[in-house]
Amino acid sequence: MKFEVFCKSAFPEATLNLLTRKDSMRSLTKTILILVLSGATAGAQSSAAKPDPKADKAPANVNLPSEATVESFLQQQFGYQEGLSWKLASIKPAGIAGLAEVTAVMANQEGQQVFHFYVAPDGEHALVGDVIPFGARPFDPVKKTLDKGITGPDRGPKNSPVTIVEFGDLQCPACKAAQPTIEALIAVEPTAHFVFQNFPLEMHNWAAKGAAYADCVGRASNDAFWKFISKTYETQADITAATADEKLTAIADQAGVKGSDIAACAAQPGTKARVDASIALGKSVDVTGTPTLFINGRKIGSFDARLSDVYKSLVDFAAKTAN
Fold it and tell me: Measured between alpha carbons, how far is 145 from 134 in angstroms, rounded to an integer?
């Protein structure tokens, strides 16, 4: 199995998007086959929880599998692949009656991916894939949560019928790769309200600092913020944990705000509290990696320039069906 290094899961949502395109049956069959053979492994560099299988106390109607059973299952499923390792992240109730949710981080020399699956009450079957919202208006609960919680820099009219929220990490390569497509979407949908929320991942060694600087730049100048994140993505590969303060301060200066003031702001406890609140908001709507976008509450996981027409269709559809 070849792993691509993403910061966010790609397979489930990308597959749903592909279904909306006029791709050949062969391509669709191949995509489904990849999903089956890979066990629908999700994309890499997510914010998986630290291993603590007993952290969540199960309701009486959920029989959680033991850590030993899960380890044995993973060994039987993936042990034949040389160089592939895994780390159990969590075993907990899935929030759906009777199902247990298991999360593991799979890794090899090319990167890592997060693998979610659900164990049935009989303890003998597992379900692989995403649990998605259901109902007459399935995305409304998440939309309401985001509408109440978003605090990040924004563009477009606040009273727009469509709100697009991005949870991003300035050190995430997938966020950098997605940015041109996101910018293009905003350009063709100027009446949409776009909001950026910081979601630095623990595995990235300067992402939290980048989020702090971004928060402070955004508070100083909304216009400067967009220049700041664009330049940070552009020079992402040149920034290290050791040089982050120097580089980010210079980028802030280039964006049109005083870098020294931004650096001082970034070190303040209040800034960390705001970033932490943004992370908490993301987690409350099941953000596990970056980039994650929401279009009026509809979760979009992996961006691909080839699907730009699909994203535009989703925004247009959200505008037509807004309350």
Answer: 16
- Per-residue pLDDT at 129: 78
In a shared domain, residues 166 and 96: no
pTM: 0.77
- Which residues, at least 6 apart from 109, have a Cβ–Cβ distance to it below 8 Å? 83
pLDDT band at 231 (very low <50, low <70, confident <90, very high): very high
Give the side-chain half-sphere CA count within 13 A for 231.
18
Query: Which element (helix H / strand E) includes 165?
Result: strand 163-168
- Residues 178, 105, single domain; the answer is no
193-221 confidence digits (pLDDT tens)? 999 999 999 889 999 999 999 999 999 99
For the chain, the domain total comes to 2
Please, what is the angle between helix 244-255 and helix 222-234, to 10°?
130
Half-sphere exposure of 291 (CA within 13 A, CB side): 26
Q: Is the pLDDT of residue 222 over 60?
A: yes
- The predicted-structure confidence for 264-315, as pLDDT tens digits, reads as follows 999 999 999 999 999 999 999 988 888 999 999 999 876 677 788 999 999 9
- Domain presence at residue 38: yes
Same domain? 144 vs 35: no
Q: Say yes or no: 165 and 234 in one domain.
A: yes
Claim to verify: residue 165 and residue 238 sit in the same structural domain: yes
Whether the CA torsion 200, 204, 208, 211 is positive or negative: it is: negative
| Single-letter amino acid code for the residue at 104 | A
Q: How many CA atoms lie within 13 A of 132 on its CB side?
A: 16
Cα–Cα distance between 37 and 18 in angstroms, integer? Answer: 18
Q: Please report how the helices 244-255 and 207-220 are oriented relative to each other, as an axis angle in degrees rounded to 10.
A: 20
Extract the tokens encoding 21: 């395109």
Residue 134 covered by a domain: no
Report the pLDDT averaged over residues 242-264.
98
Last residue of a domain, one of 75, 101, 128: 128
Domain that residue 256 falls in:
140-321
Q: Does 294 map to a domain? A: yes
Question: Do 109 and 145 share a domain, yes or no?
Answer: no
